[in-house]
Amino acid sequence: MTLLTQSSTWQALSAHSKNVPHMRELFATDAARFNKMSLSACGLLLDYSKNRATAETLDLLFALASNSQLEAKIKAMFAGEIINTTEKRAVLHTALRSTAEQSIIAEGQDIVPEVQQTLDKMQGFVSSVTSGQWKGYTGKAITDIVSIGIGGSFLGPKIVSQALRPYWNPELNCHFVANVDGTSISEKLKLLDPETTLFIMSSKSFGTQETLTNTLTARDWFLAKGGLQSDVAKHFVAVTSNVAKATDFGIDANNIFPMWDWVGGRYSLWSAIGLPIALLIGMDNFRALLTGAHQMDEHFATAPLTENMPVIMGLLSLWYGNFFNAQSHVVLTYDHYLRGLPAYFQQLDMESNGKSVTLNGTDVDYSTGPVIWGGEGTNGQHAYHQLLHQGTALIPADFIMPLQSHNPIGEHHDQLASNCFGQTQALMQGRTFDEALAELANSALSATEKQLIAQHKVMPGNKPSNTLLMDKLTPSTLGALIALYEHRTFVQGAIWDINSFDQWGVELGKNLGNDVLARIGAEQDSDALDASSNALINLYRQGKI
């Protein structure tokens, strides 16, 4: 057993988990439960009253956090200590949304001035494009942005841009490319005019296979459509650490934006990786996004554990994963603009906490990162919500909704809200056999049929959920929301004593993929791998089954 599972607090939580009353009872015996178990911070309200938790539960979870030195670990991250131990790096995405007055030291240097300089450079670039000052090679203004990246360099900008669609510059459109499948970029290029298109290539090394391949294809398309190599600088910019490769490609050194080792890809949207966001919504709104995230950073760094929104959410998720065998966690967004958020949180959490050894290399004997999944609003109610209500798996849920819509039409938002709140109530209280039978009392069914149908309509309830509300979806509230989930992820990793900031599982697949690519191209022996891989490579070479 690990030290974590041997601890008295862990053992107490394990025993306590078997004695928590049904939530129906918890609400029936405490009319003030919502007031006691809700919290507001940074423009967000968290209702966590619909959880299988009592005051004793929370006390034990907070004790587990304290015993795991969570507060010290939070301070270490904000102080720029080397908490990504396997890669010997600080973890300072929070510095990207710091204020100019702050001083944050990494590797002996204050990094805030460089962050602010990059924001200023972004401001100038965004202004030149949106004002029409930046011209393409034929003298026309830019109308379309193509953001080429993968992982966090793709997903963060795409999801945030999608979420903030009401704030877009009406003169610009943006297209996101990540998949190396040629169909992805081909379909995008069909929509574009090379004279008015600007490509943003995001790759720290300027050599990420998928990103480089898509960027080379974009350049080939641009040249085939009439552009010259000397015109590339007017239509391609880069976010990279490899200035030499970018300039060799044809990008002007003045149009290369920096990336830093102390920012992981899934935490990078706050940096120049967010350039597509800034172009679409303007720098004032981009800075508001950073401000919202910074406010959540301040809350996370200073609020007591018992009043700390990321801490509470992280502990409750750990509670179900480690003591109720919950293998997944669903995120349900009741706002069309937030429909991509579950996929973003999926990468954030699963790439961070999908680990099986502690910081010192000991195999864990407890569940770490759950499967994060989800979808949009009422759509899921006619699909997978069936599993949430009556399936045998325990699946904690987060419901996210703004109180005000950007598109207030008739009763649409009232119906949306009623669905959101109704689902959390149904998950909590369920339906007993007697209640189901009573509903069928006036039906034409026989007594036997009523008994049978009632059995099928029983729902156990006691299914946990959090509800997150905001007044309105704005750049600031979105920034706070994303930072909340970043820190929630950190809380769990800190207690599990794992490194939430490396991703060796991702690296292995990349390396083996490059090896297979060489064998497909006949540069290496195609029969030197396992029997399955050899057969698949040979079938691919033949081009038919």
Automatic annotation (TrEMBL):
CDD domains: SIS_PGI_1, SIS_PGI_2. Coiled coil: none annotated. It is found in: Cytoplasm. Belongs to the GPI family. Catalyzes the reversible isomerization of glucose-6-phosphate to fructose-6-phosphate. It catalyses: alpha-D-glucose 6-phosphate = beta-D-fructose 6-phosphate. The keyword Flavoprotein does not apply. Its EC number is 5.3.1.9. Its main location: cytoplasm. This is Glucose-6-phosphate isomerase. The active site is at E351, H382, K510. The lineage of its organism: Bacteria, Pseudomonadati, Pseudomonadota, Gammaproteobacteria, Alteromonadales. The keyword Cytoplasm applies. Pathway: Carbohydrate degradation; glycolysis; D-glyceraldehyde 3-phosphate and glycerone phosphate from D-glucose: step 2/4; Carbohydrate biosynthesis; gluconeogenesis. Keywords: Cytoplasm, Gluconeogenesis, Glycolysis, Isomerase. It is an enzyme of class 5 (isomerase). One of its GO terms (molecular function) is glucose-6-phosphate isomerase activity.
